[in-house]
């Protein structure tokens, strides 16, 4: 009975988030059998500069992978898939780390995705109005790689001259595992302006002052591009296999950006029998929302749809053969943490939550239930409104300069007030999602169901507010760790055990709970949305008054 034919087949998914690395051992039905996590270091040498170490990240990948495969017959592990944040890794010509900072600290060789140092560079790039910008919603984000490369060239001449390779973090990981410098179509299309039908556009790089990348046929940023899930080289090298605690030669897949892996883990799930509007509809009726530190909204279409302020359309960047549009909010989980932990009543919340053996957010949710009296919880914010762009607006306004706003503050300083500002912040994030979805629908998307995954999808208040405010049912995946399942799906595809990504998605992506919107609350949230849109109008108005000084 224990022959290779009947033995369970496993796949390893490795996910590098902003603050930690996680790994999971996943079976062929998408169940997470083992899971491990390890924090990674972040340096913030000055405001808006966020850096990491590729050596620290790889060491954490090795540590968590060894933990999840411990005790399993290595012959049953068939493939490995990586996903990671779209951070920029800089290596010299000998593949050694190279400083991305003025201090010359070579071990700090990663500019994080959320780093906003390249503001003047992205303004210069957007002023060109080059045709490649049509595929990023009309304006490039400071979080993409070309402005960061330009910043390095302009500010760190020595690093620029010594640089041999610039990797997106997901591609750095697949290189470490296989020794092959191939890039994933996902990273280069979404963050670097590569076109799956045309490749790199020489005129763009010359126009923005990075003609040196064109000279060596794009050797430094990638001239060998693979589809996500495609097997790379000869699999794990002996060195990487030893580091990871796996046999050499195991299939390694071309990787994905973390949000795209989350999308892969949920968007293709079989929904039969749940009475959802997307049942018997194409996958294009769904949006996958990956909510963690930040949030991404992934919608696919059969033909390219150009959505103002929403990234894409990107061909085959997540689901092969389909175009991807990607909306996003730069700070969501990070914003909720910021608002809650910065409140004067936070120490009281901390001690009460600890005494009740609950997380601070579970405690806040139950506290809101206590103070709502006969009202629905959401109605408590009738006089309290938040504009959530404390870290600028990624979609659909693509305005880095926007700031957060809170309207309706009083002199009260207690736990009730903390609970209310927490609720209003969650509602603001959901109203921002509605703003993104309405912009996508106005451009031609037809979306009727949300699929949520990521850390914030564990918060029932966050989920219910998204259902009520968008008016759409929310599907939660059976496995909370959908991003890890997405990474494992890549490994499963590379192993050859599934004929396609689509087949692996349908088999390994499972849905858990469905949360329906409360349509009786529609009028209230329509009014909240009106106020929400007025807030940004007012912000722009008062800014233009001050700018006239």
UniProtKB/TrEMBL annotation:
One of its GO terms (biological process) is pentose metabolic process. The keyword ATP-binding does not apply. This is FGGY carbohydrate kinase domain-containing protein. Belongs to the FGGY kinase family. Keywords: Kinase, Transferase. GO terms for cellular component: cytoplasm. GO terms for molecular function: D-ribulokinase activity. It comes from the Eukaryota. NCBIfam families: 5C_CHO_kinase. It comes from Tachuris rubrigastra. Residues 10-265 form the Carbohydrate kinase FGGY N-terminal domain. Residues 288-494 form the Carbohydrate kinase FGGY C-terminal domain.
